[in-house]
Structures are given as structure tokens and as C-alpha cells.
Amino acid sequence: MKTGCRDSELDLLCFERILWDHGLDPVAGLDEVGRGCLAGPVVAAAVIFSPDIHLSGVRDSKALSSKQRQVFDRTIREKALAVSVAQVESTEIDRINILKASLKAMAQAVDNLDLRPMALLVDGNQQIPHILPQKTLVKGDQRSLSVAAASIVAKVFRDSLMEEMHRHYPHYNFAGNKGYPTSEHRKAIKLYGCCPIHRRTFKGVREHTTISQEYD
What we know:
Layout: H1 14-21, E1 27-33, E2 42-48, H2 66-79, E3 82-88, H3 90-96, H4 98-112, E4 119-123, E5 134-137, H5 145-168, H6 174-177, H7 183-192
Parallel strand pairs: 1-4, 4-5
Antiparallel strand pairs: 1-2, 2-3
Helix pairs in contact: 2-5, 3-4
């Protein structure tokens, strides 16, 4: 589908509006977080807004501070028609690979919505395994309000999960690194081996899976 949305003149509801104008309402925006982590699940969110939504300041979650994301998360949940979250755990990521796990999480987020969308806006260049019409958007979290909102919801949800995991596995400082491959995190893996939520097929983890595991 040709959108007519050019980045030089893009507003963050342009892609939604094109779908709405084609009778595809409601539209769900999808994004995921945690693909590059060494530990924890990949988390996806789906967000549906009404055509009369007014919400300024929402953008790619990576461009916001933690406090800003938490404020926007509450606002998004208040103003959206529907919001859902889904996750695929590290053991399944190891089994099916991170790309398939990310796409699966987004498909599950769609199915978890209380409101059935008629079309999807998917961050990235890969369609998800779902029967609904969908448009992929490279850097969609910078180009679509729905996708940007999904990126914030997914990030806030996953960060909270990793902060809880920190209480179980404090050696890795998951509260600080959220499972991403910081130098501190890599050093902890070398020293303590991996814990049950580490992705054992990932470089930086798999080299150390034969070390005696304190948490296994």
C-alpha cells in the first residue's frame, strides 16, 4: 500500500490516517524491546488510539529518560483505546532465535488486545506471523504515534521485569543494565557464569555456560 507519507513532512499520525481513510479502523501499533540483551525476555506491546487522539511528546522510547517513559506509559494507558503486552522468555529465544521470538511476541501482543484491530503498523522490516493486514515501518518508533507508544509501554514493562530479576540475581546488576551487554554485565558472566534467565545461545553467554552455575 502506498502511504503518501514522506519523512520531510511527516506527522506522527500520517500512517494511521492512511489506514483509517481506507476503512481500516482500529489500527494497532507494535514494537518490541530487548532484542540485543544477553538476559531476560523479549517484550512486545500493542497500542490502539482513536482517530481523535491528542498526545504530544511521545516518541521513540530510547530518546526518553526513565522518568519520562513512566509518565508517558501512564498517559498512554489512560488515553489509548487498548494496550497489551506480551513476552517470550529466554529459553524460547534460545530455541527459536531472537528474530522469530520478537515477531512472535508482537503477534501475541495483538492477540492479547481487548479490542480487535483491523490493521497493524509494525516496527522494523519484518512482518509478524498474523493474518491481519500489516505495514512494516523501519524506525517506526520515530514515524508513528502508535508504534512510538508501543515502544514506551514495552520498555517500561520490561524494565520493571528486569528490576524484579535483580532481586533474584543481584550479581549481574539487572536493575542497572536491564540485561544489556554492558562491560559490567559481561564481567559478571565471566565471574559467576550464567543464571536461568540468560540467553545461552548468545555470544557473551554461551562461552561461559560450562562454568559451574551458582544459580542452577
